[in-house]
Write a structure and sequence with these properties.
With 849 residues, the chain is α+β, with helices and mostly antiparallel strands. Helix content is 26%, strand content 27%. The chain is elongated, with a radius of gyration of 38 Å. About 1% of the residues have low confidence.
């Protein structure tokens, strides 16, 4: 949320430099992410830094002597140009100064002679530095004497772009009548905007007054509320509108006021200026007031064209009804979208049908237009869960919905409607009807909490005097009554604090305002507990390190998804995942409604987002999946290891490199790296061909550990690859049971000395049936080779007519070595003979010549 310092000063005196104020707010939980300087310089000479560590630099600083407030006292035609005029500007000097300008919003004053109440403007003198209004972007320029079509000009009246306020440069900036002539522009228009991250736990500060309340408590100042007095001169409102609430759980309170005889026009510049500073676009005086009050006090409101309500009611007294949507109802909202309504959507309606999505956005039929003359202003309170659910289902977001979705107390409704209708009367004229429609079927309970100083000391670890605790709480508008001078306080929670319902909440407030940075350090009054290993975490880190060393990058993806999205990892026509999903009671979006069953879908999303920007994408994730449990409401949360590879095997290199595409055996090699890192015994591991709905037929396998299925891997099925919008190239993926992997890991394993005697290597090629897996043959070689056989590596596979149909040749490189001697040819031949004999007996193998 953006908070202009000038607006904040309306409600609390600022006694600190703005940079120090930002630090105090951040320490108290209102994280100031950035400071935007508008026309003014920082009050500190040291460099400023945002919360991400990046230095902050002020924008254009307006020279106090050269950029001032002026007033145009006469506009004359230019003698040599129809599109230019000569304007005399009074700026506090002995006589006005003439400028040449082409601003179209001054042409209507041309030739009227001396102006008694000429427009107030920003006047820049010779030597002033501004942004060039005729150049794209922000290009600095310095005013120098020149001639414009034969008339000397060394100064100018400024547009918003030239001052760096916006991109508007078609006309000059026209200020309100109260702008003081001769005052530096920085004193009148300059500002500093605090960009505050409003996290869910500080939703109470989602308004200027909410931030001012925090500032007042932190700096010891008094908070000033805006007036809620309303001048009411019209007939009673009860004769002109009715309100009915049909579900008080979803709509605890509804207030409304009526103003007639308004004139739609632009809001004054001071209001437009504040709205622009916080990122809102001014529209007209009525709509701008609703936005202004929402930002000021935190209560969203909505303005209806009252005459349209009367028209919809057939000329009778209109009746507003709040209720749930009925089957088949539709609503055209202010953003121009016609929406099919869900049965849980709360609406504001009349007897003719829906008028708006409650607490989120109004409808198009009763919106304020240039011809509107009467306004019915409503400010209500809505159930925050229902508002969030509606925004998700309708895929709609608004400033009002964001506030109601985080919780707004019903008490603010009356303040918001009274403040809003009075500002409308002041800015748009008209007469306010007497009275307020206030339907309040479900009053909010008053929350009272008992707090003891002993509990404060127990939680914080140090004592705070009772009177200081009371002072801190009362500075935040909690009402405190001391029940026992030695121990207890009875605290009444103010309306704006929906987040406080227990002593812990109060203690957090005490610590915030006292200052986290002031909490004293104290050593532990005990011995440190003994160090214990976390075997699971160590093995997890071991696998991470091994995968990173193999060239992969780790990612962390969302644990929330939808069943429909995860179904995309199965090729069409294959059985879907029919296991029940764990549903989220309050999903944050329509794409995050259930807990995931697999890591693979989100990992492939990440691959798709990156593969177009990189020659190769090699990713992995180790995290939990969530499977519904039959033993209770909580799901099982086993860990999985997911891997995805695609693209070039190696980057291009001037001396040459393997830039071919990654394939199945690259993925298998990565999995073997994981198995080796965990020191899982080779005889316990095998790889078998597999048919899996995620993978290409004939290019998939499964990992088996001690006859237990540990996961599947392979090349993605083409239809799965297309479903994730992946390029037409092999995409390799795996998802392994990480719990099973670590359960088979060996934390203690034998190591050998570096060999002192040379090794003997020889090749062994055997012919076996095609059905015999090469890995199984290798295991048989190791089994029969004894202690002298140190390594077996497959280096060739051959099929052809030379060895017969249904046969294949497997060539292995065998390494023999002894720890205490150099092996003789006879010793090696004896071991080899035993290996051959074992292969003949087990596989019917024959030696290949």
């Amino acid at each position: 949320m953006k908070v202009p310092l000038s607006w904040l000063k309306d409600y609390v005196d600022i006694t600190l430099p703005v940079e120090e104020l930002a630090e105090r707010l951040t320490l108290a939980g209102l994280e100031v992410e950035h400071l935007d300087y508008v026309g003014v310089a920082p009050t500190r000479s040291a460099a400023l830094h945002s919360t991400n560590g990046e230095p902050q630099h002020p924008g254009l600083v307006w020279d106090r002597d050269k950029i001032v407030i002026g007033q145009i006292v006469e506009v004359r035609p230019h003698p040599n140009a129809d599109r230019l005029v000569l304007a005399d500007v009074e700026y506090g000097a002995e006589k006005p100064h003439q400028v040449v300008t082409g601003a179209p919003n001054l042409f209507h004053l041309k030739g009227q002679g001396r102006l008694a109440h000429g427009p107030k403007v920003v006047f820049a003198k010779q030597g002033a530095t501004l942004y060039d209004g005729h150049q794209p972007g922000q290009v600095l320029m310095t005013l120098k004497p020149a001639k414009l079509r034969g008339v000397p000009s060394d100064s100018m009246v400024c547009s918003e772009k030239e001052l760096g306020l916006s991109d508007e440069h078609e006309g000059i900036l026209l200020l309100d009548d109260d702008a003081p002539v001769g005052v530096p522009a920085g004193d009148y228009l300059g500002d500093v905007v605090l960009d505050i991250a409003i996290l869910p736990n500080i939703a109470r500060a989602m308004s200027i007054i909410g931030v001012a309340r925090e500032v007042a408590a932190l700096t010891g100042q008094r908070l000033r509320y805006p007036s809620s007095a309303v001048a009411q001169a019209g007939p009673p409102i009860k004769e002109q509108v009715e309100v009915e609430i049909r579900d008080s759980e979803l709509n605890p309170r509804f207030t409304a006021m009526l103003i007639t005889g308004v004139q739609i026009a632009p809001a004054p510049y001071w209001m437009q200026r504040r709205l622009r500073l916080v990122g809102m676009r001014p529209i007209n005086n009525i709509v701008d007031v609703t936005n202004y009050v929402m930002l000021e006090v935190g209560e969203p409101s909505h303005a209806f064209d009252y005459d349209q309500l009367v028209k919809r009611a057939g000329g009778r007294t209109p009746k507003l009804i709040t209720r749930l949507a009925q089957p088949g109802e539709r609503l055209l909202t202010l953003d121009g979208v016609e929406r099919a309504l869900d049965p849980f959507n709360m609406l504001v309606t009349d007897t003719a049908g829906p008028l708006g999505l409650a607490g989120i956005m109004g409808g198009g039929e009763t919106e304020v237009s240039d011809s509107t003359t009467s306004i019915l202003l409503e400010a209500a309170n809505w159930d925050f869960i229902n508002v969030r659910r509606t925004m998700q289902s309708q895929r709609i977001a608004s400033e009002a919905g964001t506030r109601f979705g985080r919780g707004v107390h019903p008490a603010l409704a009356l303040l918001g409607v009274r403040r809003g209708v009075e500002l409308m009367r002041q800015l748009a004229g008209g007469a306010v009807a007497q009275g307020v429609i206030d339907v309040y079927p479900k009053p909010a309970p008053t929350i009272v909490i008992d707090l003891t100083t002993a509990e404060v000391e127990r939680i914080l670890g140090f004592s705070i005097p009772l009177d200081q605790i009371v002072h801190i709480l009362e500075s935040l508008e909690f009402k405190s009554a001391i029940r026992n001078p030695q121990s207890a306080i009875r605290v009444t929670v103010p309306d704006h604090r929906l987040d406080c319902d227990g002593p812990d909440d109060l203690i957090e407030e005490i610590a915030r305002i006292y200052g986290y940075d002031r909490i004293p350090r104290s050593p532990m009054n005990d011995e440190m507990p003994p160090q214990r290993d976390n075997a699971d975490l160590e093995l997890e880190e071991l696998v991470r390190d091994a995968l990173v060393e193999a060239g992969l990058q780790e990612v962390v993806t969302y644990a929330m998804t939808t069943p429909a999205h995860e179904a995309a990892i199965f090729a069409p026509g294959t059985p879907p995942d029919d296991r029940p999903y764990v549903a989220i009671a309050n999903p944050i979006s329509a794409e995050r409604t259930h807990m995931r069953h697999t890591l693979l879908a989100a990992l492939l999303d990440t691959v798709a987002a990156n593969v177009r920007h990189h020659a190769a994408v090699n990713l992995f994730e180790i995290s939990k999946v969530y499977l519904a449990s039959e033993d209770g409401p909580l799901p099982d949360e086993p860990r999985r290891l997911a891997i995805a590879l695609t693209g070039q095997r190696a980057p291009e290199f001037w001396q040459g490199s393997d830039t071919g595409l990654l394939g199945f055996y690259d993925l298998k090699g990565v999995i073997e790296t994981v198995v080796a890192a965990l020191h899982i015994d080779s005889p316990r591991v095998r790889y078998e061909p597999s048919a899996h709905p995620t993978y290409h037929p004939g290019r998939a396998a499964k990992l088996i550990l001690d006859d237990r299925h540990a996961g599947s891997f392979g090349e993605l099925h083409p239809r799965v690859r297309e479903a994730f919008d992946l390029p037409n190239q092999p995409v390799l993926a795996a998802e392994l049971d990480f719990e099973l992997l670590v359960n088979h890991a060996r934390r203690l394993f034998r190591v050998r000395d570096v060999p002192r005697y040379p090794a003997v290597t020889e090749d062994l090629a055997v012919i076996v049936n095609n059905a015999a897996p090469a890995a199984v043959v290798r295991d048989a070689i190791i089994e029969s080779g004894g202690e002298l056989l140190r390594d077996v590596a497959l280096f060739d596979v051959f099929r052809g007519e030379q060895i017969g149909s249904g046969k294949k040749s497997l060539a292995y490189r065998l390494t023999y070595q002894a720890e205490d001697r150099t092996l003789t040819d006879a010793e090696v031949a004896k071991v080899r003979a035993g290996i051959v004999r074992h292969l003949q007996e087990k596989f019917g193998a024959t030696l290949r010549g």
